Structure formats: structure tokens, C-alpha cells
Amino acid sequence: MSYLDLLAWITENKNEIISCRVDNVYKISGTQAYFLKLHCKNSDKNLVIEPGKRIHFTKYDRQKEISNEVSLIRAHIKDRIINNIELLGKERIIKLTFMDRLMYIELLPRGLLVITDLNNRILFATEYKEFKDRVIKPNVIYTPPPPPPPLTDEEIDKLLKKGNLSRILGVPQEIIEALGISVLNRQELDNAVLKIKKLEEDIEKGNFNKCLIPNLTVIPLKFNDCIEKDSYNDALDEFFTNEEKAVIKSETDKKLEEEKKKLVKTIEEIENEIETYKKEEDKHRNIANILIANYQNIENEINKNLGKNTIKIKLDEYEIELDPKLSVYKNASKYFDIAKEYAEKRKKAEETLNNLKQKLKELDKQIEERTEEIRISLRKREWYEKYRWSFTRNGYLVIAGRDIDQNESLVRKLLEPKDIFLHADIQGAPATIIKTQGNSVSEDDIRDAAVIAACYSKAWKVGMGAIDVFWVNGDQVSKSPPSGEYLKKGSFMIYGKKNFINNVKMQLFLGLTEDFKIIVGSEEVVKKYSSSNIFILLEPGDDDPSKLSTKIIKILQEKLKLKGLRTLQDDIIRSLPGKSKIVAIKNKT
């Protein structure tokens, strides 16, 4: 990201990030980037920070990991609230302020992430080193990299001759081209500087474009092949996520190919060993047979050399060593035993070879699967996926709470007067909402949502076969109790008539959408939104979600001929109401 990128992103997102609490920190697998889960005033957000490169919120999921480095970062910023974010002067260095910590993110080449106390004393850094112009070590005062010295007139003239305006003006070449800057002399250079300054002022006022040029860059101006996004963050998120996919795939392929190369080399070595063992086995067996075939001659040679320890004779192409103290048959037996030893070595080597070849097949399969896993894991997450969610057959979003806190949040923040509120007729059930967008919904839509309200209630966990579900309009639900009464957290008052859907069966269907989301709901809903020809019917059972998710992945991979679905295991687990069983695998047709 350039300075202008950072200026645009902070201008757009400063109010979004201030007051957010750091819920957790992870490393993004296969990269040098960090993934911060933030709890913010309007919604939870995921922030990607990669020193030397980028900062942006992301809507895409990632494969995450924990390391010692991550644990140290967590110790300093987890559960702390971001009080401010700013740029250090006109440098590509971001300063995040917490109550008792400062975090500096250097987006310069070989940039660092540094955490200090409020006096700038270093507590953590992604790299400890003595640079030419500063020291990054624990307990040392943090100093940012010094800015490059200003260009001399002579250097400017040389750069002008080369047409290197990007170096002179300190902005990317795409910005120069988008502004139509063409400089041939010093006066035109002064005009170009004014244009850049005007662009900075416009960005600070929020007056800029959100231009994504696929596979090339993101800039705050319209330019050739520009795709205008809803926000600058969205443009950055899409650009860097696509780049990240390529990087992770390349690194993964490299590691797996190195492993494959070593395996192939080992296989070749063992194949050579087997060939050597076979030759030695055949040789010693042939010698034994020659001794027996030439029994009389060999016995005569032994009798002539009875006082010696060993003798050598030449028969056929072999020079054979004999022990005169032993009979012909015993000498032959020794060679048969040696042949047998080589046969055993060959057999063991062949077993090892078969195992390695099987491992090579699995590695080839793994290489193919990893490519798919990367593609699937880096998918966009929608805001509603933190809840239980589904759709009705006519396309209305259904959301339900996972716990008391989410039930409370749904009713307080997301339930609108014309929405439909549903609840299973049992204590211990999610607040379930159909987001109607102010429209009238059909009875079929309400029945689709009732499946979610019923299956994620306590009725599933206790193994009931069916339960009643009631529904009301959003304006019939209130958090205000009658005078003198108290409503505990997660409880609501329902005013007016309740409408009941009786005997909603404990049957939940599960399928896979085109963009690799796990969709659950009624048969009609899953049949409509599942991109595959098959989907799965679940009922209360004995398999815990982890065990059942493995079975589901196996079924989907085998039936759909898809690879890389293991990365969806957590999503499947989150989609299951509790202990369950697979009742049927259904076809759309």
C-alpha cells in the first residue's frame, strides 16, 4: 500500500476501528500476515495486518494458526480497546493507540510490527535487529525508519530524463497516469506537485474513488479498467485476498513439491537397492546350484586342500570361495543361506517401496486437495454467518441466535416491525427472525423458518420427534416488561395473538452452495440453494458434531467428486444442532 492508499483507508475507516476491542489474534497460514478479530460498536470485524505490505478489514475467511509470536502479540493487545489510529507524518507507518500500549505497523520494505508502552519503550517486535540508523530491541525506545534524504537538483534532473516521475513525486505510476501528469521541465514539475497535494486534500475530505484494477493495483482515482467498489476497503480486500491466494498456493506447492522430490529420490534409491539384492540373490543361488551340479569335481578339490582354511575355484563366470572343512553340500548350503538373506532384504525393500509409492500417491492427492482447500478456505464471509442462518424458499434471510447474547442482540438490533419473529414452544430455543424487507411473506416461507426455530431448540438435544413453533410480527415483540416486572437477559414479551405451526419435525437438511457455504433448512430450501445434486437429511442421534462432520465431508467428497472440503469441517460443526445422525442421502431429481 502506498501512502495515498493508507490515507484513503484511514479516512474511510478511522471511525470504524476506534473503540473496537481486540478479541483475538492469529497468524494467517502461509503468509506473514496477522488476523485480528475485533468486537466493534456496530458489528464484529476482522482486520488483516501484514507488515511491509497492507492493512484492511476482510470479509474473507482464512486458515489461521497460532505461534509463539502470536501468543506474545495476544499478551500485549488482546481484550484491549483501540483508542486511536493515525499515520506518522507522511510516512507509511500506522500508529494504533490502546489504553496502555502503542502498536506501530510499518508498511515500508522489510517493515515491522512493533508494540511499545506509552513511553515508546519496545515490548515486542516481529524482528529484533540493529539497523544502520536505529535499534529494534526490547526495552529500547522505538524510533521509526528515517525518511529518505531529499533529492538533489542533479538527481531530479537525471530522473526527469529517465521519466521516473514516481520516484520524484513519491506516488505510484498509476496515480501519475490517472492524473494525466507529464513532466518535461521544472515548471511542469511544480504543477505536478500541486496536483498530488490537491489529491491528498481531497482524500482527507473523503472525496476519492474506490478503484480496483484487477491483478494490478488499487488507487483512489478512476483509471483504465477500473472497477468501482463500494468502499476503498472492499477494493483492497479483494485485491490482496486474490494475491494472497496465489502466494499461499505457490508456497504450499513449493513445500509439497520439495517433499515429493525427496520421496521420488528415495524411491529411486530403494529400487536400485532391490535390483542389487536381486542380482546378489541370483548370483549366490546360482553358485550353490553349480556346486551341486559339479559335485564330484568339487569334492576332489576339497580333498586336495583339506589343510587349508579356504580355497577358490573358477566355475562358469564365478570365482567361488570354498571351506575345505565342509562337505560339498554344506558349502552349497552356505550359498543358499546367503541367497536367502538377500531375498529377505529384497522383500523388506519391496515392502518399503510399496509403502513409499502409496505415500507418493497420497502426496499427489494432497497437492491437488491443498489447491482446492486454499480456494475454498479463502471465501467471503457474510455478516449473518456469525448467527444460525438459512433462507426461505422465496429468498428471505432467516437468522437465529446461537446463545443468549445473540438472542438479545437480534431482538434489540435487527428485529424490525414488519419482520417475522419465531420461537419453538419450549424453554431453551433461539430467537429466530425472517428479514422480510417490509414485504408480506408466504406461509411456506414461515414454515421454512420454523424448521430452523425448531431444530436448533432444546427439543433436538433431548431427542424429541417434533415440536410446535409460534410466530408473531416484529412489532409484537418487546424487551419492555409490564410495570413492576423484570425480564432476564434473552427473554422477551410477546403482545397480541400468537400464530402456531404445529408438529414441526426434528428433520434438518444440509447441502453445499455454489460458493461453498453449508446451507441448512427445510428440504425445499436446501434443494433450491444447494448447488450439488445431493443433500443430507439429519435427525437427532448419537454422533457428536465433530464425528458426524467427518462423515458428512466424506459423503460430499465421494458423491460430488470434490476435493478440499476438509476445510469446511468447522462450518459443518457450527451448522449441526447437537448430537445427530444421518438418516438419508437425497437426490434433487
**Strand content bin:** 15-25%
Number of DSSP E strands: 29
* Mean pLDDT reading: 91
Spatial shape: flat
Biggest β-sheet: strands ordered side by side in the sheet:
18-19-21-20-22-25
Count of helical stretches:
15
Query: Which structural class do you get from the secondary structure elements?
Result: alpha+beta
**Main sheet characteristics:** 6 strands, antiparallel
Tally of structural domains: 4
**Residue windows where pLDDT falls under 50 for at least 5 positions:** none
Radius of gyration: 36 Å
End-to-end C-alpha gap: 50 Å
- Helix content, binned percent: 40-55%
Task: Offer a few descriptive terms.
ibrinogen binding protein from staphylococcus aureus fold; 4 domains; six-stranded antiparallel β-sheet; coiled coil; alpha+beta; five-stranded antiparallel β-sheet; 23% strand; flat; Helix Hairpins; 15 helices
Describe, in plain words, how this protein is organized in 3D.
It is a single chain. The protein is of the alpha+beta class and about 600 residues long. The protein has four domains: about 5-140, ibrinogen binding protein from staphylococcus aureus domain (ibrinogen binding protein from staphylococcus aureus fold, Roll); about 155-230, no CATH class; about 265-380, Orthogonal Bundle (Helix Hairpins); about 390-585, no CATH class. The protein has 15 helices and 29 strands. The strands form eight sheets. It has a six-stranded antiparallel sheet. The protein has a five-stranded antiparallel sheet with strand order 4-3-2-1-5. Strands 6-7-8-9-10 form a five-stranded antiparallel sheet, covered by helices on one side. Helix 7 (about 230-295) packs antiparallel against helix 9 (about 330-375) and helix 14 packs across helix 15 (about 570-575). The longest helix has about 60 residues, at about 230-295. The radius of gyration is 36 Å and the shape is flat. It starts with a helix and ends with a strand.
